[in-house]
Amino acid sequence: MFSALFSTGYAQKEQPDDTVDPFKDPKDDVLNPLRYIPNNLLTAIAVALVLIVAVLQTLSIFKWGAKWMMTMTIGAYFFALGLGLRFGLHSDPHSSGLYITQYLFVTLSPCAFIAATYVLLGRLARALDAERYLLISSRKLTTIFIISDVVTFLTQAGGGGITSSGTNPNNRIIGPKIFLAGLAAQLASFALFSAIFAVFLYRVYTKEKSLWRIDNHKPWYIRWTALAGAMVLSCIGILVRSSFRTAELSEGFGGPLTRNEALFYTLDTLPLFVAIAVYIPFWPGRFINDHPLASAVENTENTAYATTGYRIHSPESAAGTVVELEQFGQKQTSTTHMV
């Protein structure tokens, strides 16, 4: 699938002209596909930050598990590699081969981030025993969207391969269109997934508040809602990036959006960094394991009941919060009025 990354046909087609100074006027240099000289300082910062996230995610897998998030971690390493290739473009801005390779790494790596997110929602719903609040079963959800991710990945890779191979001028017209179709399909698919995720959270919150608050006895940063919040931020980051890339390629390679380094970092690299870095303090393996969250809380309440003889019920009413203490079958009720 990554064979397109190393294609040389496009590079051979546009051999640099040694008589042209690539640093004199990059904005109007037709041999410079970026139309600017990549800033090495920005490249170094971006590569360092993404690599730090990749390493921390690797350590999190070893410490807390969740190997099913490994696709995101692997994708982060490839994303850092793609960003690192911009060092080469700084020295040799006329290299079409370097440009194509870094472009494909940077644009295809997020497919791995998206795949991990698809898996995560299904895992979370099963851990909460809340699959009934999904629009479709968690297994079907994961399967359908993973297939979608693979198809859109192959479409983008195929478009990149067509663009970079052969001597037929039509390849440079057809290839970008196929690539754009893959990006647009990926954006539509992830937008639909995000809507399903939003509906899931809304249903849990409105229809079963006890489940929403099932681990409120824990510090906020280790509650399942903290992980859900991290997923929301991650989804927003991916949607921003996907929208930017779709708009960028709709202008064609070499369009105004492609030529703006500030936009590249602001609307592509930064949102993706947020999308993967947000899981460092909220690593899914800390929240989701072999024991469902609902069962774990229920077991805790049963243990407290067996030890003290008390079980607490806190239904809400218009008058306030009704606290019922049940001791070995006999209830004592008190009401805390809302101010």
UniProtKB/TrEMBL annotation:
<keyword id="KW-0812">Transmembrane</keyword>
<protein>
    <submittedName>
        <fullName>RTA1 like protein-domain-containing protein</fullName>
    </submittedName>
</protein>
<dbReference type="Pfam" id="PF04479">
    <property type="entry name" value="RTA1"/>
</dbReference>
<dbReference type="InterPro" id="IPR007568">
    <property type="entry name" value="RTA1"/>
</dbReference>
<feature type="transmembrane region" description="Helical">
    <location>
        <begin position="262"/>
        <end position="282"/>
    </location>
</feature>
<feature type="transmembrane region" description="Helical">
    <location>
        <begin position="36"/>
        <end position="56"/>
    </location>
</feature>
<keyword id="KW-0472">Membrane</keyword>
<dbReference type="GO" id="GO:0016020">
    <property type="term" value="C:membrane"/>
</dbReference>
<feature type="transmembrane region" description="Helical">
    <location>
        <begin position="221"/>
        <end position="242"/>
    </location>
</feature>
<feature type="transmembrane region" description="Helical">
    <location>
        <begin position="141"/>
        <end position="158"/>
    </location>
</feature>
<keyword id="KW-1133">Transmembrane helix</keyword>
<feature type="transmembrane region" description="Helical">
    <location>
        <begin position="100"/>
        <end position="121"/>
    </location>
</feature>
<feature type="compositionally biased region" description="Polar residues">
    <location>
        <begin position="1"/>
        <end position="10"/>
    </location>
</feature>
<feature type="transmembrane region" description="Helical">
    <location>
        <begin position="68"/>
        <end position="88"/>
    </location>
</feature>
<feature type="region of interest" description="Disordered">
    <location>
        <begin position="1"/>
        <end position="25"/>
    </location>
</feature>
<feature type="transmembrane region" description="Helical">
    <location>
        <begin position="178"/>
        <end position="201"/>
    </location>
</feature>
